[in-house]
Amino acid sequence: MTLATQLSNQGVPCTLAEIDPGWKAVGAGLTLNGASLRAFEELGVLDQVRSAGHIHGGRKIHDIHGNVLREQAAYVPAADDMSAGGGILRPTLHRILSSATRASGATVRLGVTVDALSDTGGGVDVQFSDGTQGRFGLVVGADGLMSKVRRLAFPEAPAPVFTGQGCWRALFPKPRDVQTIWVFMDEGHKIGLNPISGDQMYMFLLESAPGNPWREPADWPELLRERMAPFGGLIGELRERVDHTTSVNYRPLESLLMSPPWHQGRIVLLGDACHATTPHAGYGAGLAVEDALCLARRLAEAGELGSRLERFTNERYPRCRAVLQGSLKVGELEMAQASVDTQLAASADLATVVREYA
Ligand SMILES: Cc1cc2nc3c(=O)[nH]c(=O)nc-3n(C[C@H](O)[C@H](O)[C@H](O)COP(=O)(O)OP(=O)(O)OC[C@H]3O[C@@H](n4cnc5c(N)ncnc54)[C@H](O)[C@@H]3O)c2cc1C
Questions:
Q1: Quick one: which of 36, 53, 131, 227 could link to 32 by a disulfide (CB 3.0–4.6 Å)?
Q2: Ligand 1 centroid – CA 145 distance (Å)
């Protein structure tokens, strides 16, 4: 959506093919960091994110009984504050980005995917799943972790790998005093609360999940209650409210890093399609938006297409790799039940990585 918006605004005719006929996002919360906010500012949607989501700085770390271990006071950050953070409901961000896409004039085709791609040098012939065909100067696979474009154009690319952890998310009304990210943790447990609007917050719970077991969606509320049982204080109170009406979501965490180049001829990948990280930096979506902005900048330049696409990967690869490595490290420390200080130090290093490359 970001790329379609930017390219259309640059006067480049653009078609977005989306497999979901309803063009919707899963109803969970999304954490944003300062770099993600900066990317939204460049795209021109930061004011909408700010008013429909919740932008904040500071952080409060608790033990699992709710006692405060460390506190960095909550504040409302300026747009260029790389320490900033925030949260938003995924469908809300989706509405903002899909409206921007429509407003840019991009052609949006819903309920279709690509069945075949043939790069003939001067363009790519695309066979769509609804039987139609098209010829395009560039095909961008921004189709997520299980990217079909990656499968079609990069058959040698690695498949996503399960990291060993699963992530639970649930939505709750926001108590007035939760104004920034609150983390509740000990060596073996971790829950976070993040405001996503003036009156809503989401909770994330990370767990080791050896063997990547299937969790039946109908059982998600009860399974989440079990996992919240060791926690007291506010989390204990929230646990009492979890029932079958609670919006709960479970996802195994998978990672992927494709070696450069991320293009082949006139076909290029971005976002989770070529680099998928875990949520430890709250940055997977932000990286995808940054990719799209970077690619749009390169495409606006003069010069041979191949070298502009090569520059795109060269600019993005080190940053995506650093975020992925730092995120995997935090996850490994959580699974190894490292001390709280060690886990927090690794999270601080990861935050520094995000700022250093910004
Ligand atoms: C549990 C969990 C928690 C996370 N938390 C955060 C967080 O707090 N903050 C954060 O920034 N990131 C988070 N992420 C990561 C974030 O969700 C992804 O990195 C981000 O969505 C990637 O964006 P994308 O546009 O590359 O792919 P996607 O968001 O997956 O979008 C791909 C789009 O392509 C469409 N599509 C898929 N296949 C096809 C096809 N064959 N043809 C046409 N269309 C297709 C999909 O329907 C979708 O609209 C989290 C991930 C997980 C698993």
A1: 36
A2: 7
Ligand 1 atom closest to 29 (CA): 8
Residue pair 25/31 in contact (Cβ under 8 Å)? The answer is: no
Which domains, from first to last, does the chain contain? Answer: 2-57+82-160+255-356 (3.50.50.60), 161-253 (3.30.9.30)
Q: What is the mean pLDDT of the chain?
A: 96
Name beta bridge partners: 111.
none
**Cβ 68 vs Cβ 233: under 8 Å:** no
Provide the pLDDT for residue 356.
79
Tokens linked to 6? 């930017």
CB of 142 sitting under 6 A from ligand 1 = yes
User: 57 in ligand 1 pocket by Cβ < 6 Å?
Assistant: no
Q: What is the pTM of this model?
A: 0.98
Expressed in angstroms and rounded, the spacing between residue 276 Cα and the centre of ligand 1 is 9
Query: What does the DSSP 8-state code read for residue 260?
Result: S
For ligand 1, whether the C-beta of 327 sits within 6 Å is no
Dist. CA 242–CA 82, nearest whole Å: 34
Tell me: the pLDDT tens digits for 21-60? 999 998 899 999 999 999 999 999 999 999 999 999 999 9
Distance between CA atoms of residues 179 and 176, nearest Å = 7
pLDDT one-digit tens code per residue, 145-181? 999 999 999 999 999 999 999 999 999 999 999 999 9
